[in-house]
Structure formats: structure tokens, C-alpha cells
Design goal:
Number of helices: 15
Bound molecules: adenosine-5'-diphosphate, magnesium ion
Shape: elongated
Structural class: alpha/beta
Distance between the termini: 96 Å
Radius of gyration: 28 Å
Oligomer: single chain
Strand content: 15-25%
Amino acid sequence: MRETAPDRTMVTSVGRELPPTGFSMPDFEAFFQKIRHQRETFFTSLQGVEPVLKGVSKVLQPAAATVALGHLEGRVVDVSGLSVTIAGLCEFTAVGDHVAIHSVDGRQITAEIVAFKRELAIAMSYEPIAGIGAGCPVIFSLHAPKQRQRQAGGVLEVNESWIGRVVDPMGQPLDGQGPLLPGGGMQRRHAQPPLATKRARLGGRIDLGIKAMNLFTTCRQGQRLGLFAGSGVGKSTLMGMLARETACDVAVISLVGERGREVRDFIEDDLGPAGLAKSVLVVATSDSSALMRREAAYSAMAIAEYYRDQGKSVLLLMDSVTRFCQALREIGLSSGEVPATRGYPPGVFATLPRLLERAGPGKVQKGGKAGQITAVFSVLVEGDDQNEPVADAVRGILDGHVVLEREIAEAGRYPAISVLQSLSRSVPGCNSAEENELVMQARHLLAVWEDVRDLVRLGAYKPGGDRAADRAVRLGPQLEKFLTQAKNEAVTIEDSFAGLAQLLEQDDEHEDNWV
Ligand SMILES: Nc1ncnc2c1ncn2[C@@H]1O[C@H](COP(=O)(O)OP(=O)(O)O)[C@@H](O)[C@H]1O
Ligand SMILES: [Mg+2]
């Protein structure tokens, strides 16, 4: 052991020998040459430590592995905008590694390496960067390779007691209800989606408790829907209703970049005690760093995966994917990516599917069962522009979309779902033939009503010319009224179809008399 353990003094000395201030290129080159040599010696000595760690008893292994094998010290050479440039660590670190920057006011600020430029590492901080200056020491704790893989990107120790709690993206409680109980699954925040070929298929349809969605965007267990809406159109209210009323075991709600006031409003008014009791909330408000906002989405996904792997039916609600993409944009631009579509660097659209793909059915477990993450991702369509790049990308990845329209909200019909613009790609496969017939009739009726409603309003509509139009004029307003649903009302999928059938049949009788 004595012969094989890493020489910590030597490792620490790597960082101590920083290039002198007032650098010149030859200084750098000599400096990095030296590091390169020491790095090789270091990794050779590491190989001896691995078997030692393996020999530690199973109980002690996690604890032993979290002990850093050595600490490397680099130095801040540049701070600009949101990014910090660090010298002295590039040979040892990789993108995604966490480092601790010692600020001039004595704080230890966690930062993540997001890019490298030549031999300098570019990092972004999880906290405000005030207090970080050129020359500040930066510490990187080196762990055994397996543990290091876990540390990069981070893990959450999720367990059952998280249900009913509000946490930040690092898994720290935000609700003043005391610490979270330790133990449970080690969930990687940046996990990979299950292998496509090993994944279960979509399950049976899931009761969302919302009439308009149950009928027109019928959703199956493990399906992923987008909720497209401008601000103030009723997104948060609808998300709260979904969390309360959906027939699921647990709801995981991620609030990314909301204003602080909105978070409390959401928890108390939209979700309510009944909703909170079966939910885990992950919150990063708009004033938190871009990394924190990004992690709010990843952490929620990791928590949902934990419950899914226990065979549970999980509902994941993310408000909003747009803010997640905006956080990625900030990170991308700070690390030197080039802005493309509306300022979003291309990396954003490569990262987005990797997040969204993680929702869905889990791996088939023994006995043929699988947990599911049924997900609703909200997308902000500012200026009600449905072709905004994030909206476009999300629409292409998901299995359906629900569009909330400002005009409908203004007319007082909530939830303001535009039936004609919304669709679920798993329908009609999950409904009976009669149900599909009902849905088709209702869609057709709403489409005709859309065409003639202005004429009716102006008093220019003359009945008797077209039977379909006449029926739409009779039934359109009734159908719209039927789709209205109060905030605290729940309607099951069976009742939704029964109500629609009754409404349409009533008019069939009317037609028979009329003919
Ligand atoms: N189902 C509903 N019933 C009645 N009013 C609603 C309903 N949904 C939304 N609203 C109204 O719309 C307003 C804005 O809703 P909110 O969910 O905060 O929108 P967003 O999250 O899109 O900004 C609410 O204050 C409320 O008055
Ligand atoms: Mg809102």
C-alpha cells in the first residue's frame, strides 16, 4: 500500500507551481510540460489505489470512494461575463468536472468546467461570481475513476421521503421542513436514456383528469406531450390541475426560471396541499445561475427516473423547457459557442433531445413490468409565435402537443386548449372504435364552428343552407361550454367520453325530428 498510494504532496505541488503572473507563451509551455510529466506519474500511482478501494468492505466502499485521492490547485486567470478562465488544471480535468474556486471574500464557490481553450479551462459558477478575481486558487479534488464519473455531473440520493418536499437542483430542501432523509438510490443527474431496444412500449391510456385533454389529446402511460402557451394563458393552473388529478403514483414537478413570487403562488394556489402531498418539486428561480436552472431540469428527470425504476407510474411536469434552453444558451455562449438560430448555439438543440428522451417508459424488468415517466413539458411561445426555434425543436421530439390560445383564455374558457391545434400521436390506437368516432365528430364540428362563428356573431348566418354548419351552430357553443373546467374540478376519462356522447346524441334526436 505504501508503495502504491499516490504521492499527495507531489500532486498538490503540481498546482503550487503556477506560472508566474505576467505570463508569456514560453512560460506556459514550460509549465504545462512539467505538468504533463507529473500527470503521467500520478496516474501510474493511481492504478495501485484501485484494488485497495475494491478490497474495502461493501459497507465502507461508498464512503472510502468519496475520499479524494488528491487535490490539484489551479488559478483563475480571467473572469469575463459569466465565465471564469482557469490555468493549471487542463491536463487533469474534463468538461462537466466540478471545481471549487476560493473567492477573495473567503467563500468556496462551486463551478463547472464547460469548455477548454488551448490549455486553459473555462468554467461557469453555480453561484454569483462576485468575489472571484484573477489569481484566486481553484481546487479540483481527484477521485478514483468510478467515483469521479459519478462526481462529474453529480448524483442525488433520492428516497421515498422526498415526496411532498420542495428541493433545489442540488437536492437541498427549500421548504423549511428540515433536512431530507439520507439513503436511497444514487441517481445520476446527467444519466442516459434507457436503450431504445430494451425500453418497454407505451402503456395503456392514463387519466389526466382534464376533459379537453382526455378527449382530444388522449395520453398513454410513458407518453411525452408538449404544452405550448404564451404567458398568462393558464399554464401553471393547468400544470397544477394535472399534478393533482392525473392517475399516477407520484408527480415530479420542475420549475425552471420562474419568478420567486410565482413559485409560492404555484405551490399554494395551483398545486394545493393535495397536489403537494404526491409531488416532488424541484425549483430554480429566475435569479439563480444558468447552471442551477439547467440542473433543475436534469435533477427532476433523475428523481422521476428513481421512482420509475421502482415500477411506479410517474408524471413529470416541466415548466418550462424554453427556460431550460435559455440556460443552455447562456452556458453555450459563455463557453465560446457561436450563436445561430435566434441566438441559440447549435449545442442547445443537440442537448435538448437527450433530456426529453429520458422521459418515457423504463426498461422492462423481471416479470415483464416497467415503470413509466409520462411527461408534460411546457414551452413558452412569446408573442404567440408557434414557430419559435425551441417550440419547433420540441414539437419534433415529443409524441404530441397541447396548444393554449390567448383568444380562448380572453373569452373566459379555461383551460384555454385549442382543440384543433392540439394532437396526440398515440391516438387513435388507445381508444375504442366508438370513442374514436366521437372524437372525430367533435373535431369536425369544432372545425365547422370555427369557420362560421364570425358570421353568427355578425348576424349574417342564414340557417338551412348547410346541415353540417347548422349542427355546428347549435352544438359549437355547447361543446365549448362542455370543455370548460374549473380549477378544482376533476373529470375522469370515462365521464369525459360519456359527457361528449350525451351531448352529440341529444342533437342527433333533434336532427331526426327536424328532418
Ligand atoms: N381553469 C381555470 N379556471 C379559471 N381561471 C383560470 C383557469 N386557468 C387559468 N385561469 C386564469 O388565468 C390566469 C393566469 O393563469 P396562470 O396559470 O398563472 O398562467 P401562466 O402560468 O400561463 O402564466 C389565472 O390567474 C386565472 O385567473
Ligand atoms: Mg405560470
